Every structure is written in structure tokens, then in C-alpha cells.
Amino acid sequence: MSIGDNIRTVRKLQGLTQKELARRLGISPVGVAQWENGLRNPKHETIKRIASALGVSVTVLYGLPAKETADQQEALEKFLDESVDNQGNIDPNRFADAKYGDLGKLANMTDELYLSSLKGWTDFDLLNVIAGSFNALNRVGKIEAVKRIADLETNPRYYKIPPYDSENSQDAAGDTPKDTPPKNG
Asked: Is the pTM of this model over 0.90?
């Protein structure tokens, strides 16, 4: 759902009209209608004002999952604040950097840097990262994640064990598969 959809949903759940929300914000009802219909996107500071007027966390309007504790919720809101670009909008790359630290920055690195940065990570470590992200998705997002993993499985670049090659019996990460015969040397 878009931010406009989220504004509409929360507004309706609270029994407010567009006119009532606009009055709380000190703007024209046309502005609220434009947000809700996707004709305009409010800047981050405006989204914070809308959230306050609706009595919800700004994260609700961004469609982010609620956190279990107030401290976690506050930290997520801080990540959003730190991710605002010069135009007043959330920059997804900045948000990834703020939310995930070094892991988010890895998204912009080459495969070689990924491999060297994550060399010490076990499959279990990687699975925990995936599981955390997967659990934050709604049902449609989870289905999409499964489809994308299935797409990755069809790309030879990501095969765990490439077709056997006696000259190079390592997978793309440089690991020698345990079920591959050793090189003759």
C-alpha cells in the first residue's frame, strides 16, 4: 500500500472525513484528497504532522511493521528521520544504511566485496537475516519473496554447486563443495 492508501485507511478507521483531517492539519481538503489518490506525495515532515494528527506512529503511514517496544519504535522513527534527502523525502538507500548499518551499505558493493565482507558469515547467519526480513512482510510480500528466490535459482550465477568442472571445483563464493571430488594436482 502507498502512503496515500495508508493515510486513507487510518483516517477511515478513526471515523474522520478528509475535511476533518485537513482541518487538523490546517490545510485544504483537496491536499488530503491528492495524497490519498496518489496525485501528490507528502514530504517526510508533513507525514510526521499527519501521523500526529491521526494519533499514530509515522511508521504506520510508511507501512512499516510495528515494533514490540517503545524503544524499538523510537529507534525506527529515528532511522526514518536520518534517511531524509534534500527534497524532504525518505531516501531508501539512506534508510537501509541507517537501519542495517554495514549490511545496507553492502548493497552498493561489487560481488567481490560482498564475498569478502560476508566471508565469516555462516549460512545460518544469512538465513537469520532473510528470516527477519521475511517475517516483516505481509502475505503478498512473502509470496513475492518466494517467487524472487525461485528466479535466483534459475540463474547459473547463483548456483550453489555449478556444473562440475575439473579445472575449477569451487562455487561462485570460492567455497569447495564437500560433495565435489578434489582437484588432481
From this structure: no
Amino acid at 28: S
**Residues 6+ away with beta carbon under 8 Å from 56:** 10
Distance separating alpha carbons of residues 36 and 28, to the nearest angstrom? 13
3-state secondary structure the chain: CCHHHHHHHHHHHCCCCHHHHHHHHCCCHHHHHHHHCCCCCCCHHHHHHHHHHHCCCHHHHHCCCCCCCHHHHHHHHHHHHHCECCCCCECHHHHHHHHHCHHHHHHHCCHHHHHHHCCCCCHHHHHHHHHHHHHCCCHHHHHHHHHHHHHHHCCHHHCCCCCCCCCCCCCCCCCCCCCCCCCCC
* pLDDT tens by residue, 155-180: 777 777 655 444 544 444 555 444 44
